[in-house]
Each structure stands twice: as C-alpha cells, then as structure tokens.
Amino acid sequence: MKDLTAKVNSVQLINHNVYKITLHVENTSFVAGQYLMILLPTGEQVPYSIGSAPHELPSLTLYILVNDETSLAYRVVEYIRINEIINIKAPGGDCHVQNGMLESMPDQILLIAGGTGFSQVKSLYDDLAAQDFSGQVSLYWGLRTPEDIFELDWINTAQTNAHFSIDVIVNEADNSWKGRTGWLYEAVLKDHPNLNKSIAFISGSVGMVYGTLDQLELKGLNKDKCFSDVFAYAPHPEKPEL
Questions:
Q1: Cα separation of 103 and 98, whole Å?
Q2: Which of 66, 95, 201, 215 is the most buried (most CB within 10 A)?
Q3: Do 16 and 85 sit in the same domain of this protein?
Q4: Can you give the pLDDT at residue 173?
Q5: Confidence check: pLDDT of 242 > 80
Q6: Cα distance between residue 112 and residue 125, in whole Å
Q7: Amino acid 123: pLDDT
Q8: Where would I find the FAD-binding FR-type domain in this sequence (predicted)?
C-alpha cells in the first residue's frame, strides 16, 4: 500500500447513520473489491472498502456507518469533515476481481453484503458492468430495517443489464416495506438452489460472512470459490459436532 493524500470533496449523511464520503485521489489505482486505510493523527489506521469502481478515478467513494459519538467511526468522519486534505494508504486487500476467478467461467457471480459491506460489492458490481461481463451477476444486500437502506437511486439505475440483478432483503420489516424479507442466505438459496458452478463474494461482519458461507456450502458452493476480506484476519469458527 502507498501513502497518499486525498482531497475531501464531500461528506454527506445519507440515512440516519451512514455517511457517504467522496475523495479526490491522484496518482493511484486499485482493483474493484479493494480497500483503503484512513490515517488518523493519533496513528490509527482504519480500513474502509472503496465503494466506487476503478473507472471512476480520481474520485473515490466510501460509506461509513456511525452508531454513536464514542465510536472510532465517528472520529474518522470528524477527521474527514474538518480537513480539506487527509492522509490515506491504498490499495489493499485480495478479495477482488483480478484473483483469477473469472478464468473459471462461472455460471453465476454472487455478491452478498450485510450493512455497509454494500460498499465492496457495489464496487465489484459496477466494475463487472463496466467490463461488459457476459455472465450472471446477482447482488444481495441484507439490512436490519428499511430505514437502514441507502443509495436507492443507484439501486434503481444500476439494474439496466439483463444479466445483472440487485435484491435488497430486510430482516425486520414494517408495513411500509414491500420488498423481500427474512435472512439474507434464504433469499440467495431461494433464487439459486444449486451453487456448484457459482462464485461468491461475501462482505460484512465475521459472523455474517461465516454464517452465510456455511449455508451456501450446504447447497454446493465450494469454499475455494468464495472470497471475503474476513478470511484474512478471522479464522472460521469451529462448527459444533452433531
């Protein structure tokens, strides 16, 4: 990863707790699915997936969830908000589209995200679309409530390719929600009951990633065809013996 400076273009609160950050970064490149590090004055380095695609450079987009003012994420947003120029490192991560997975000619690419894990799969989705990828690409985004959704305009305009689809699944729906409900893995398996020739990218918390992977493996997904940043820093919890 290289030390870089980034110009802050905008900081927007786009729902009740997610900020969309747009940066201008010269003289860099990355592969869809990679992340950058925000370098705080305290010396802390905080990773965030890049939510834009490489063809959008020199513009980069981040999505940062802030639950409360005592959190590290709050300090990151405040650092970005009060500075015109910030320090970053980029790019990092091996969970990306140049890992050789396209060479296997998969029938289906599944992009599965929980919460702000959306950032990584959005970058992957946009990049595959920009490459005119001819296979099937299905993005599944799981959220707790309808109020947690953001980037609806992107969702509505990104589904123009007949081979690409986006589904938002809400776990705790109210009467206002007319979309899909339930657990994220249930929606994936309802649409794709046989995953023998599929590839998956999963982005979210450690528990969400491994819980989803466990369910998809039962329907034929090969773990070697599944990719997640979680694999690099958190071992798979041991499954209980039956």
A1: 10
A2: 201
A3: yes
A4: 84
A5: no
A6: 11
A7: 97
A8: 1-98
Is the same domain home to 182 and 202? yes
Same domain, 207 and 106: yes
Residue 83, domain member (yes or no): yes
Beta bridge partners, 199, equal 109
pLDDT at 30 over 50: yes
Q: Give the tokens for residue 163.
A: 């081979």
What is the spatial distance between Cα 182 and Cα 186, in angstroms, rounded to a whole number?
7
If DSSP codes are grouped into helix, strand and coil, which group holds residue 29? coil
pLDDT at 238 over 70: no
Round to whole Å and give the CA distance between 70 and 187: 35
Residue type, 161: N
Taking the whole predicted model, whether its pTM rises above 0.90 is answered as: yes
Domain for residue 241, yes or no? no
Reduce the DSSP state of residue 48 to 3 states and report it.
strand
Residue 5 has pLDDT above 90, yes or no: yes
